[in-house]
Amino acid sequence: MDKNTKKKTHIFQSEVKQLLHLMIHSLYSNKEIFLREVISNASDAIEKLRFSKLSSPENFSNLISPGKIQISLNKSEKTITISDNGIGMTKKEIINNLGIIAQSGTKNFLKNLKKNNTQKNDFIGKFGVGFYSIFIVAEKVAVYTRHANIHNNLGILWESEGKGTYTIQEIPLKEIGTQIILYLKDTEKEFLEEWKIKQIVKKYSDHISIPVEISKYDEKTKTISWEKINKAQSLWTLPKTNITKKEYQEFYSYLTQDTEKPLIWTHNIIEGSQSYINLMYIPKKTTWDMWNRENKHGLKLYVKNVYIMDDATQFLPNYLRFVKGIIDSQDLPLNVSREILQNNELTKNLKKTLTKRILTLLTKLQDQDQKKYQEFWNNFGIILKEGIAEDTENKDIISNLLRFNSLKISQKIQTVSLNDYLKNFKENQEKIYFLTADSFDSALNSPHLEIFKENNIDVLLLSDRVDEWMMNYLLEFKNKKFQSISKTDITLEKFLKSKPILPEKINQKYSLFIQKIKEILDNKVKDVRITNRLTNTPVIVLTDSNDMSTQMSKLFVAAGQQVPTIKYILEINMEHKLIKKILKIQEKEKLSIWIEMLFEQAILAEKGNLENPNNFIKKINKLLTI
After folding, report:
1. Distant-in-sequence, close-in-space partners of 371: CB < 8 Å, separation ≥ 6
2. pLDDT at 284 over 70
3. CATH code of domain 235-377
């Protein structure tokens, strides 16, 4: 025997070992999912071969068999065999596909999964690792595979018991494709029943375009025949009137491996200058990795009903990355690549159209079913907000879809639309007021809100990390400008309670006091002035209207970028008891400590931290002992 044909033992990647351990020892409550995963992989292999034959006919001209997936049951041997005549795998591919998890972030995900003692099975397929689900029911697995481009009748045998190692051996194989033999555990004999297999295929794989067949043995003639047990017609190509709600939901489960039903979907068959079909779903819940903009997402692309690629990001903007589904174009070339898609005018037009479809779908949802739309917003609102900066063409539509917390609706769930806010506009109010902060509680308790509470003026409270970035692009809504209440704004004076004119003597006293504060703080502040914004707080800091905000500065610092120190405007509430007490202090040193302490107190309230908290504590302690 040639040395290349010898069986070699390999060790699974550590992440694969973790995954196998989790699945075998309790992760899966729904064991039948293994068949869905194997059929899904077989379907992909056949679709890839179909594409290869069309795009490179010179290399695959001898392969003319129609694609099919076949299932055989052997009760005496306790085996299930699933075969496909797809593209197959090379030795390198079988190691990469069955021995390694390439998806970035998997290691951290598995760590969190273990730490949180997750008992769900809805993550499988998220990494393309659904193959390993077979070890939930099988004590041993053998994979025979031969790649369509290998013409010497040699294939690969991969075997494993799912215990940390696998073996690979080069063997003679006449047929291209992949055959998987599952040697079932004694506890899993129900999967050797024909009715059970039919039930699972009907549930998960009815609408894949590849026929799934099960073997039928005739005792009289001693022959084997094959019975097709799925519809084997692409669901999206059918007229909408021929598809039931349940069928749409089942196809979504097949497409995404999501155990939840979709929240809503849109299905369109377009013929004309551009001919295409789209079937797009909005999930009910977000996935654990949705916040990572770099993770795989996008639509499944078909051209003339031929599978081309997964995760085609070119057809929807990044802020709609939660959308799942397929696009089947009649106009794109079959040999289209990601690079061609990126610069293709047809792709750009499709992207515009599909984006509008999703935004229109969401607009209808918020108009027709507020409860369902709120469910969407709670899961995906923070991602949709990215669209304000990314999609200027649809900014108005996205603005209508936004939801916020507000001062008047003091609850953590974001329920207030911008139209709701406008309905509560006060007489002569010119702007939409908002406040950004690190958290909802921090925003709700900010001293910036005091004058707004007193005058019954609503303020939008923004505490998502994306909010400060978003508000740099969301400048107005229905001709009403946005105004941060942590910045200076002369129009706000219209809403302040009118104060009686002070006697000249008191005015001079206040002016001298303000001048002393400026001298004490010197270049630490941009300005010091009297304010009517406050009722319960002695001092507050604001940023100038053209300066960087506190929250934006925090975002830059968190991203590792250097930012200039913000010089704040310090505003003094002359009506506060503490300020009236300080006004009477004559000793310069004592006054300086008081003023510096109050300034740092205002900085702490604004930023949530101080550069030198120990120094601040020393000032307080000194004042307490004077």
Report:
1. none
2. yes
3. 3.30.230.80
